Amino acid sequence: MLVRDLEDHKKWGKSPWERDLKEILDKGIIVLDKPAGPTSHQVTAWVKQILGAKKAGHSGTLDPGVTGVLPIMLNSSTKIVQGLLKSPKEYVGVMYLHGEVKKSKLMKVIKEFEGDIMQVPPAKSAVKRRSRKRTVYYFEVLEIKDRQVLFKTLVEAGTYIRKLCHDMGVALGVGANMKELRRTKAGPFTENTVVTLHELKEGWEIYKEKGDESFLKKLIRPVEEGLYGTPKVYVKSSAVSSITHGASLGVNGVAQCEESVKMGKMTAVFTQNGELVSFGNALRDSKAIVKDWDGDAVSTDRVILEKDVYPKTWKSSSKKSI
User: Which residues of 86-111 are buried (b: 16+ CB within 10 A; e: fewer)?
Assistant: First the structure.
């Protein structure tokens, strides 16, 4: 973490974990354990209905038969959907081989599919069928029984595991298909944070019938957790209001900056209380943000924080950076 100019920041705002239920429902994420059967769109609609949310959006479609981690953003949190869509995904699944294959050959072919690969999306997909590069960070064989291969894999967003299994089968010369699949991780969210539709419904009913918010609060993650792995800049309290009105973040408004911030890459802007203010693209690298005395640090593409949480310290009505 690079420090530019720290200040007393506790006069305004609050930690995401101090929000009341209304704020949590507006800036919350449900990490749903998607069941087999319904589509991702259907379960998102059910979550929206259960909680009476105005908006809800999911991050990364799962086929109806696939289970596991499906982050669902509520209301204001839907603004970070695109950021989460780009996060790596981890899966555990079963690949069925259509013929006998020696383990040594299987492992050799699997190694050939790790790293950067070219993949054409399957016929039944929501994207254009053209060859595109994707990264398979690892493909680990957990167990082999008869022709069934239990595996765990971490892949770049947009990688089709069903197609990956098919292409491995072609390379092996016997054919293969994906038999079962469960997503175990999506960006920063893992199976340790999932909740079921039943738990969500139960939490809402307890709140409505008894006024007890405690159980429901435990089921909803703050929007900030969705950007856990995203490069971050922390700003002075005096800069927050200007950003919420659409101004870019100027270098003079920066308090701290993570070294991972790179020019042109998506960057999240946080208060020193840990609240997500906005996100956009870094306009210079972290070292320049800390050392420079003039110019913009991060563009303001989407604003999450309300305009009246921090005091207005700027006078001009124009959207200049601060």
Answer: ebebbbbbbbbbeeebeeeebeebbe
The pLDDT tens digits for 151-201 are 999 999 989 999 999 999 999 999 999 999 999 999 889 999 899 999 999
- What DSSP string runs through 289-318? HHH-SSSEEE--SEE-S-TTSS------SS
Domain-by-domain residue ranges, the chain? 2-14+230-303, 89-186
Q: How far apart (Å, rounded) are the C-alpha atoms in residues 29 and 69?
A: 12
Distances (CA, A) of 59 to 7, 31, 269, 300, 305: 36, 10, 21, 22, 21
In order, the DSSP letters of 176-212 are: EEEEEEEEEEETTEEGGG-B-HHHHHHHHHHHHHH--
Give the tokens for residue 111.
């190694």
Q: For 67-103, how does the pLDDT look when each residue is reduced to its tens digit (9 = 90+)? A: 999 999 999 999 888 777 778 999 999 999 999 999 9
Predicted TM-score (pTM) of this structure: 0.88
Q: Which residues are catalytic?
A: 63
Alpha-carbon gap, residue 63 to 158, rounded angstroms: 13
Question: How far is the C-alpha of 57 from the C-alpha of 213, rounded, in Å?
Answer: 23
Cβ atoms of residues 67 and 35 within 8 Å: yes
Q: What is the CATH number of domain 2-14+230-303?
A: 2.30.130.10
- Topology of domain 89-186, CATH: Alpha-Beta Plaits (3.30.70)
Nearest to 281 by CA among 298, 302, 293, 294: 298
Q: For strand 232-235 and strand 254-257, is the pairing parallel, antiparallel, or unpaired?
A: antiparallel
CA pair distance 277, 255, nearest whole angstrom: 14
As separate numbers, helices (DSSP H) first and strands (DSSP E) second, the chain gives 9, 18
Q: Are 244 and 264 in contact (CB under 8 A)?
A: no
End-to-end alpha carbon distance in the chain: 21
Rounded to an integer, what distance in angstroms lies between the CA atom of residue 209 and that of residue 186?
A: 33
